[in-house]
Amino acid sequence: MEPNNEIVLKETKEVVKVILTTTEVRELGQDLARKYSEIIDLEDQKKAVTSEYKSRIDAGAAEASALARKIGNGYEFREVHCQIYVDVALSRTYTVRMDTGEILKSRPATSDELQTSLIDREEVAERLSTEMTEGENGNDVRTYDPDQVSPAKPDEEPTDVEFGDQLPEDEMF
């Protein structure tokens, strides 16, 4: 329509069909490719986060299950300090829990253990006898009978342990 001598009251905008140019189609295609790439990246991030949370949830569930099992059983396995004693007279070896004094195992001593135990007993008895005989001021304090000495840790009083006994609390660490 050609303007004829009509008066324009105001300008407006209308949404109408516009045929795209080749350049516009190419630009829109590039925008579309970028957008799909962003969507793929976001989906990958979502999978990674979902996987991470699933791992954390699974780890929490496993820990909760282990705690429930301990509560249900009323015990758990732990590493505790123990000491092995060889009773030469009985030819037995004892494994003793140092926190409770409970004898965990008792078995026949091997010949190597008996031999080592005898050597250790003689060394301990000799050391204790020398220390006790000379005393700190050179005074005769007392001597130990080597047959009364059982293997002990350095700087600890020797202790005789029999099967079924518990060590006194002052001898535990």
Write the SSE topology.
Blueprint: H1 22-73, E1 82-87, E2 92-97, E3 103-108, H2 111-134
Antiparallel strand pairs: 1-2, 2-3
Structure in words:
The protein has 173 residues and is mostly helical. It folds into 2 domains: 18-77; 82-171, no CATH class. The protein contains 2 helices and 3 strands; from the N terminus they run αβββα. The protein has helices at 22-73, 111-134; strands at 82-87, 92-97, 103-108. Strands 1-2-3 form a 3-stranded antiparallel sheet. The protein starts with 21 loop residues before the first helix and ends in a 39-residue tail after the last helix. 5% of the residues are buried. Mean pLDDT is 77; it is low at 131-164.
Number of helices: 2
| Major sheet details | 3 strands, antiparallel
Alpha-beta content class: mainly alpha
Q: Mean pLDDT across all residues, rounded? A: 77
Element pattern in H and E: HEEEH
The first-to-last residue Cα distance is 107 Å
| Strand composition percent | 5-15%
Rg measurement, Å: 43 Å
| Low-pLDDT residue spans | 131-164
How many E-type strands? 3
Dominant shape: rod-shaped
Helix fraction, binned, reads: 40-55%
Q: What is the count of distinct domains?
A: 2
In brief:
Helix content is 44%, strand content 10%.
Features:
173 residues; mainly alpha; 2 domains; three-stranded antiparallel sheet; 2 helices; 3 strands; 10% strand; rod-shaped
